[in-house]
Structure formats: structure tokens, C-alpha cells
């Protein structure tokens, strides 16, 4: 054996995977899928059967194509519509999507929110949402002194405020 020391530098994330595989044919409307590296909610899922004749030099007719799944998804963070067609027997990436509620404590002038976590700490790394309607509801409710709870959706290393609950006036 050699007396040399070997040092390995890991560039991989030690945490859990951001996605998991699922057979395309089992993904349904209102589920989640990764399309073009973006986490999407499935808006439409169709199984298509492509039957086509492949011309070959020996003049044999071609074989039937395989069932395909046509996915139309809406990016859960920016609302953009994305599409993909995948053989139904192939695996697709499905994002781990989590939703957590936090009580809104403060809104800073630069657009960051301060949220109260379940264990009593604060979470101060989120910006106000870009959705105009939700943004207005949050700012107006906070300005009126209401107790607000925001829902934060996270997937694939991103997170964003996606909903609001008014739990009454502050005491």
C-alpha cells in the first residue's frame, strides 16, 4: 500500500434530492413535473398515440409508435406555460414541493418580509411576492394591523410566498 494521502473535494449537495423519478404515464393533471428544469404544476396531461410508417430502403412498413404523454405545465414560481412530450414508459423528474405557513411579522422598505417560524425564530430571506393581487392584499392587510399568515411554497431550491390567510386583527 502507498503512504500517499488522498483528498477528495465534494461538489455535490449533501442534502436530499430536489426531484424524484416517476413514470410519465402515471403523472396526472394537478400533479407536479419538471419541464425545462423548472418545477411545474401539470395543467394538461394527454396520452397521445403516434402511429407512423417509417420508410426504409427494403420498403418494409414501419412499426407502431409508442404511447406519448404531452404535458402542459405552469411554472409554480413565475406562471409561465411550458410543454413537453415524453414516452409514457419513460421516467420524468418530479419536484419535491413543500408548503409551509408562517406568521408575518414585518415588511421592510426594501421588500423583504420577516416571518415567524414554528420554533419561534425568524425567517428574513424572502421577498414580497411579484403577483400584484397577492402583494396588494399583504401590504393592505399589514397596513391595517391585521394578523396575517403567509404560505410559502418551495421546490428545487426556490421559495416564494404563494397565499395569504387573514387570522384577524392584532391584539
From TrEMBL:
Translation factor that promotes translation elongation and termination, particularly upon ribosome stalling at specific amino acid sequence contexts. Binds between the exit (E) and peptidyl (P) site of the ribosome and promotes rescue of stalled ribosome: specifically required for efficient translation of polyproline-containing peptides as well as other motifs that stall the ribosome. Acts as ribosome quality control (RQC) cofactor by joining the RQC complex to facilitate peptidyl transfer during CAT tailing step. eIF-5A seems to be the only eukaryotic protein to have a hypusine residue which is a post-translational modification of a lysine by the addition of a butylamino group. One of its GO terms (biological process) is positive regulation of translational termination. Gene3D superfamilies: 2.30.30.30, Nucleic acid-binding proteins. Residues 1-12 have a biased composition (Basic and acidic residues). Residues 1-20 are annotated as: Disordered. Belongs to the eIF-5A family. Pfam families: eIF-5a, IF5A-like_N. Keywords: Hypusine, Initiation factor, Protein biosynthesis. Residues 96-165 form the Translation initiation factor 5A C-terminal domain. This is Eukaryotic translation initiation factor 5A. The keyword Nuclease does not apply. The keyword S-adenosyl-L-methionine does not apply. PROSITE patterns: IF5A_HYPUSINE. GO terms for molecular function: ribosome binding; RNA binding; translation elongation factor activity; translation initiation factor activity.
Amino acid at each position: 500500500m502507498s503512504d500517499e494521502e488522498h483528498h477528495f473535494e465534494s461538489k455535490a449537495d449533501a442534502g436530499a434530492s430536489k426531484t424524484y423519478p416517476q413514470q410519465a404515464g402515471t403523472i396526472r393533471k394537478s400533479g407536479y413535473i419538471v419541464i425545462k428544469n423548472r418545477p411545474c404544476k401539470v395543467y394538461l396531461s394527454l396520452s397521445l398515440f403516434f402511429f407512423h410508417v417509417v420508410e426504409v430502403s427494403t420498403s418494409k412498413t414501419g412499426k407502431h409508435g409508442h404511447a406519448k404523454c404531452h404535458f402542459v405545465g405552469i411554472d409554480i414560481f413565475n406562471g409561465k406555460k411550458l410543454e413537453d412530450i415524453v414516452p409514457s414508459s419513460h421516467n420524468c423528474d418530479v419536484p419535491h414541493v413543500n408548503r409551509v405557513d408562517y406568521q408575518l411579522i414585518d415588511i421592510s422598505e426594501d421588500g423583504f418580509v420577516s416571518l415567524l417560524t414554528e420554533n419561534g425564530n425568524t425567517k428574513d430571506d424572502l421577498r414580497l411576492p411579484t403577483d400584484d393581487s397577492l402583494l396588494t392584499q399583504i401590504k393592505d392587510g399589514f397596513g391595517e394591523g391585521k394578523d396575517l399568515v403567509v404560505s410559502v411554497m418551495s421546490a428545487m431550491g426556490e421559495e416564494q410566498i404563494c397565499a395569504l390567510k387573514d387570522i384577524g386583527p392584532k391584539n
